[in-house]
Amino acid sequence: MISCTVCGVREAFYARLYSGEKLCTRCFLESIEDKVRAVIARHRMFEFNDRIAVAVSGGKDSLSLLHILARIERDFPNASLYAITVDEGIEGYRDEAIEIASENCERLGVRHFIISFKELYGYALDDIVKRIRHLESGLTPCSYCGVLRRRALNVLARRINATKIATAHNLDDEIQTFMLNIIHGDTSRMSRTGPAFDEELPNLIPRVKPLCEVLEKETTLYAYLRGIRFQENPCPYASEALRNDVRNMLNRLEEKHPGIKYTIYRSAEKIREALREKIPKIKLSRCKVCGEPTVGEICQVCQLLQGI
Ligand code: SF4
Ligand code: ZN
Ligand code: ZN
Question: What CATH number belongs to 43-279?
């Protein structure tokens, strides 16, 4: 039997290559929860009386996050936890995910709120996809979905008076986005995306990413070990080809050089700090059409909806 290198008592089942640890189930689960606690503290993600809305899609990452936050909520006795879900309107996919999300919320005793594209924009994503097939904009379903979902989360969080939105981006998501921003030379986005969005902007609920230092493979393992039921089927519209290539490239690098994902993550932090000093903070105004916060005159949501 190989013993766990943390407790020295129980049998190890998982070798964490980047640190050299061999962990038993209990020490693995605790290590993930401790890591999330440390990230929350380091980035001061939560205040003691926050109303935290966890963006729950029904997938492994968001449900792991919900379960972890429900456990460590005790550190913030006056804070309250809610789950918010966006129903984009993807038949045969999101309906199943919502049912799974609701079941988890019930199990944890967390109130669950849902908002749909149909209610908010008048179109389900399925309707939009049918319409954009005839257009030649070159935009994919994900281009619409991402922008519309972001807005929907903010609207729903405001509706329930949430003071923070917690999203389940993990370390892999973060470094993929960093590499994509490098590929596109998007220095402005590079300076703005990070574990916690600390600029106070009117009508925008601050977002935090408590899983940003946990590897994707470890959030999956966490979900399995805690017996969390999550949706495993991929979205029928998934089309982020370049992100997938970047993901594969990073996975190959990590296999050859364990720990390199963390090295890239730390480099991204340094580059972001340096860029923040150079790039002016964004100024928001109100969209002339819908009144929501925007950088230009008409927000991206209205531009997309007008194009349909
Ligand atoms: Fe939306 Fe694309 Fe994700 Fe499907 S894969 S839920 S279309 S962003
Ligand atoms: Zn152990
Ligand atoms: Zn608008």
Answer: 3.40.50.620
